[in-house]
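Batch manifest, entry 17 of 40.
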Amino acid sequence: MKVRRGVPEMNLAFLDVICCGFGAIILLLMITKIGLPLVLEETLSDFAAQVALKQDAIKEIFGEIEMLERAKEESELNLDDALQRLKSLEEELEEVTSRFDALQTLTTDQKDRLADLVIAKQSLTDEMERLLGQDFQRRDSSIGGMTVDSEYIVFIIDTSGSMQEGAWPQVVAKVTEVLNVYPNVKGIQVMNDMGNYMFPRFQGLWIEDSPARRRAIIDRLRSWNIYSNSSPVEGIEQAIEDFYDPDKLISLYVFGDDFRPSSRAPSVEAVVDRIDSVNAIDEQGNRRVRIHGVGFPVYLSIGRLSSTFRQFATLMRELTVRNGGTFVALPRIN
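Output type: structure tokens
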């Protein structure tokens, strides 16, 4: 029979010591680490609070941005309204200015003068003294406010539809009156406002004055109907180009009722500048020809204050002032 050996007491005691040591170490670790979760929890709470603050700040910034965008839109709308009001005021100012210019044209003094429409008396030259006599004297130096010293006259007449339908009998009457004021001249010519001659065979030539020629002019004028663009610039240029002579005293008489801008004459200013260049000033400060104007209120007679009539009045007032003449606007169509 086999005899069992006993367990030595020293070995068991060593194991006990080892186990107690490990247990003590574990216990120490547990004691020292017990506060770590609390620290982590507090740190996470701080981060969460900061994130919330940042989110609130972002929301506030977005709110401010939205307010600024609305304010910008309102400002743009206010600017558009202001520009629209400004444009409207500018249009009203332009209309008032045009009416003022038209009223200036039809002043009381001019109406008084127009009642006698006669195109100014001409001063006697040596040739006129020979024709009229040295003892001939005029009672007044002007008629209807116009003064003339010319021996040659050119009529430039607007032959447009409005003139033909609304003022032609008065056009014939006023041309007759002008011819009566000049009992004797050296030359007469008639063309429309586009430079088309009444008598083509006399194109570029003076018609010799005589009672028979005057009657022929008036008779032809009564039925003269030719296209017109209602702009006197072509007729004035043609007359100056064909008849200017430094040794002749020449007057142009422009008859019309309105002015319609075109590519050749886009505005009143453009026409004035164009005529200035054609009807140049000589060394003595005199223009090549004298320009007078007569306005027929065709549109006023039917109750309309047309802008084209105002433009014609403005144009002729400026042209006559610059070119030694006078503009007469008739107060009514008889």
